[in-house]
Amino acid sequence: MDPKLDGLIKEGYCLFEDVLSDDLLRRLRVASDKLLDENETEHKDTNQGNLAFMQFQDPAFLDLITWPGALAVLSRLGFDRPRFWSGFAIAKERGETPLYWHQDWVFWDEPEAADRMPHQLFFMYYLTDTQVENGCLRLIPKSHRRRFDLHEHLGKGHDSDIRHTDDHRHPLFSKHSAEIDVSTNAGDLVVGDARLLHSAHTNQTSERRTVLTLWYLPCYDKTSERVRAGYRERTNTAALQELCAEDRQRIAPLVADYKGDVEPAVWNRVPGALLR
Ligand SMILES: O=C(O)CCC(=O)C(=O)O
Q: How far is the CA of 130 from the centre of ligand 1 (A)?
């Protein structure tokens, strides 16, 4: 088995170096700074940082979603017909508190929650080099399929009060004995299973630290109709309609295109009996 796929399956993540070109990286920095500077939504100032929905506000974002290097990574991992779900730009400004431990799978009542293979992957691109000092990613290997003590405190994750609490003594802000730091160089790609527990350190520097997180559905055609219908409920199809014909054509192979009428899977962020 490919060692990266082995890492993804066993540890819940893998790292690919130098995936973005210098030119795309430069354009993404400009585009994401603008997006984050202009963000006036309720997501602007939370324990997640300054979070903005990344759609097609700038041509660089479409280039990133359809980036041949990213599709080559998916293909190397054995996912030849992935779909794109959504994307976010997340800035950690100077002195911002650590992120809380969380996981991002939202269909915990569905059999996919216990699958060996991931049904939802994060692609995280940090736009600067990251270390502990400026808020690099932390994660708990194997936590995508194995229950850890932290799971008892997770609650509804991003859908809960932990996004806004001032009490950073909460266990979800604690250091964990199994955690590891993932330092990256700008242009590297961290691929992870949505079920993996992850977080990020405080940014102690004076520079903004931005990550672009893209969500791909790697084996969409093998994912149940219920889950595909669930994703459809939370997809902004209007943004796609606004693209010009040429851009729509570029993204067409990645569009999550479920058209059935099955009852959508219930949105449930709380890992239950399917996590052992
Ligand atoms: O801000 C970070 O470094 C992590 C972002 C994150 O957890 C996410 O996008 O799910």
A: 13
Instruction: Reduce the DSSP state of residue 133 to 3 states and report it.
Output: coil
Q: Can you tell me the distance from the alpha carbon of 261 to that of 90, in angstroms, rounded to the nearest whole number?
A: 34
pLDDT, tens only, 115-152: 999 999 999 999 999 999 999 999 999 999 999 999 99
Question: Of 275, 48, 47, nearest to 151 (Cα)?
Answer: 275
User: Cβ–Cβ contacts within 10 Å for residue 169, how many?
Assistant: 7
- Measure the CA–CA gap between 257 and 238, rounded to whole angstroms: 14
CB of 198 within 6 A of ligand 1: the answer is: yes
Rounded to 10 degrees, what is the CA torsion of 73, 76, 78, 82? 30
Question: What domains can be seen in the chain, in order of their start residue?
Answer: 3-223 (2.60.120.620)
Cβ of residue 213 lying under 6 Å from some atom of ligand 1: yes
In sequence order, which residues have a C-beta less than 8 Å from that of residue 249 and are 6 or more positions away? none
What is d(CA 21, CA 61) in angstroms, rounded to the nearest whole number? 14
Our answer on whether the CB atom of 90 is closer than 6 Å to any ligand 1 atom is yes
**Coil, helix or strand at residue 231:** helix
| CA-to-CA separations, 124 to 47, 127, 244, in angstroms, rounded | 18, 10, 27
Assess whether the C-beta atom of 74 lies below 6 angstroms from ligand 1: no
The structure's pTM equals: 0.96
Contact 220, 74 (CB under 8 A): no
Tokens of 182: 């993932």
Ligand 1 geometric centre to CA of 188 (Å): 15
